[in-house]
Amino acid sequence: MSTKSKNPFTWVEIYVEDMSRAQKFYETVFQIEMIPMQAPGEFGDLEMLSFPWAQGEENISGALCKTSEMKPGIGGTLVYFTCEDCSIETARVESAGGKVLQEKFPISEHGFCSIVMDTEGNSIGFHSNK
Q1: Given this model, what pLDDT does residue 70 score?
Q2: 117: Cβ–Cβ under 8 A, 6 or more apart, which residues?
Q3: Residue 5 DSSP symbol
Q4: Model pTM?
Q5: pLDDT of 4 above 70
Q6: Strands lying side by side in the sheet with 99-106
Q7: What domains can be seen in the chain, in order of their start residue?
Q8: Which residues pair with 41 in a beta bridge?
């Protein structure tokens, strides 16, 4: 695979104010279990919970991060999560404490997406082909 055609994403960090609340939101919406990362104190006050990943395969992952150095908020980076049908995850958002900003909508031949706000004030997107 040439450098020009390689997916440049490797890691995503979603900053949060309340790690327990954010963990519950993401685990509920995606029906996953977050993975604790580094030992406490390894990187100052940084706390991290990773999303699952496939070890040794081409995929990206990321983590929920809590630190005094970075804050969550709307209007910054928008991360899209792959879904089989983004309306499923969108339907779980409000009961998990988040807010639906834009219900599932078509993006021409590229499939569908929806935009939501997590419990920390971050806007995130869901993308699916159907």
Answers
A1: 80
A2: 74, 98, 99, 100, 101, 123, 124
A3: G
A4: 0.81
A5: no
A6: 79-82, 123-128, 112-117, 99-106
A7: 10-128 (3.10.180.10)
A8: 44
